[in-house]
Design a protein that fits this description.
Elements lengths: L4 E4 L5 H16 L5 H13 L5 E7 L2 E13 L4 E11 L8 H15 L3 E6 L6 H9 L18
Parallel strand pairs: 4-5
Antiparallel strand pairs: 1-2, 2-3, 3-4
């Protein structure tokens, strides 16, 4: 099997990224996302690096995975946490090292940046498979619960 290469997403990736966001939301949470909103939201990240950045995993020239990194300032640490979000791996590429390649790339970039104090992600409480994957990669459950008021999806 060909190795996975990781690259920064660009404007030409917006439609594929947004389509994969919708597929992931439907598969993992049973949510149907609005196509125009996901296109605008994805494009906003590509056009404004202060919002974050997308990474695309490719194998044999085909996109097989993606994730988004966003930023959270920590006054306690005087540094920035990178949040891994919007993870998607194409169904036929799952369990073949695609997420591992994305994760390792993020970790290497984060460790090389003296302003980054850590990497975080959130996962659905019922997604035990994903939780096991993250634990196997050295992440551990934090002692925080997540609360929100969602003005868009409810």
């Amino acid at each position: 099997m060909e190795p996975v290469s990781i690259r920064l997403a660009h404007a030409g990736d917006v439609e594929t990224l947004a389509q994969n966001h919708r597929a992931m939301a439907l598969e993992t949470e049973g949510k149907t996302l609005d196509p125009e909103t996901t296109l605008r939201g994805t494009r906003a990240v590509i056009e404004d690096p202060a919002k974050g950045f997308y990474l695309v995993a490719e194998r044999e020239g085909q996109a097989v995975g993606q994730l988004l990194v966003t930023f959270e300032w920590s006054d306690w640490r005087n540094g920035t946490f990178w949040w891994i979000q919007s993870v998607y791996v194409a169904e036929g590429a799952r369990r073949t090292g695609v997420y591992r390649a994305l994760y390792d790339h993020v970790l290497a970039k984060a460790r090389a940046d003296k302003n980054v104090c850590g990497v975080r992600l959130y996962v659905d409480k019922e997604n035990h498979h994903a939780q096991a994957t993250y634990a196997a990669m050295g992440m551990r459950a934090a002692h925080y619960d997540f609360f929100e008021i969602d003005f868009v999806l409810g």
